[in-house]
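Sequence decides. Our protein:
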Amino acid sequence: YKDYANKTFRIANDLTGEGEFTLPLEILNTLQRHARGKPDPALRSIAEGALQRFRYPTFLSKALAAFDKWKSGQDGKAQAFLAAIGPDIVPQALNLYLNREQSEDDQHLFNLLAIFKDRVTEIAKQEITTRGGPPLIRLVRLVRRLGTHDLIPELRPLIHRDDQQIRMEILETLVRFQAPESADLLRKFLKLKNADDQIRVIEIAGMYKVADLVQDLASMVRTFSFFRVDYVRNEKIIEALGRIGHASAIPVLERLAKTKFSLYPKQLADLKLLLFQSLRLYDAAPLAPLLRLGSQSKDTLIRTACRESLPTQRGRPLDSPPTTGEA
């Protein structure tokens, strides 16, 4: 039986290096059954010894390299094989994931890591304090994608890092996890002078439906401006308010819809169209003044948007108190 175990491992080792995972998965499953169910303790010990070889760093490295090269081919057999090896695969898989270029596909690695979320969380607690630069950014995004709320205490201190990109990733993650301080942090970050960063904060507030930010966002809308960039920001605010869909945004929408003059008439027209198209995300009942205004527009797209909004009864009740919504 020892010769059999050694031979089957060598076969699995050779095939894995070539990107063939179907037979190695069968071999691994067979050895696992033998390690659990063989009546002879000596045979169980031999099977367990063969299984241990699948967990050697050199084998894991080869298997991951093949998995990365051929992705999740063979009807998922590659992922199934690595998953069957167990959580020992996580350190190398996580390192591979964190050190990829942003443009490289990583969904197959994410799918594998998601199987071992608890083990990833254990390692991430240490990695968060030691990593920096792009690997840390990828780690924070991974934590956010996995929904690992347990890491909030480790994430909080990173909001004070000098690296603005890391701070923005931490901000989004804390908002995603509904940390108690997330609304106050959004208000603080809305005051950033960099236009791109400010727009990112607006997008985060809308993406995660942070109703506590409605008044803050509404107060930022400019109905008249000398600067074209304000119209870009206005568009992002209208989109965010639409995602949140709370009644307290309606007054500023009405003021904007009634605006007649602009130094940039094309941008104002586009903004008004976006505004009326967003109304379908609100409850229709209190929108009568806006819908009447839009129905009289010369823009056929605005009139169409108003008609589409009439029967809409989406979102939470408009008289509900603002709360930080879920993602």
Confidence is low (pLDDT under 50) at residues 312-327. DSSP finds 19 helices and no strands in the chain. The radius of gyration is 27 Å.
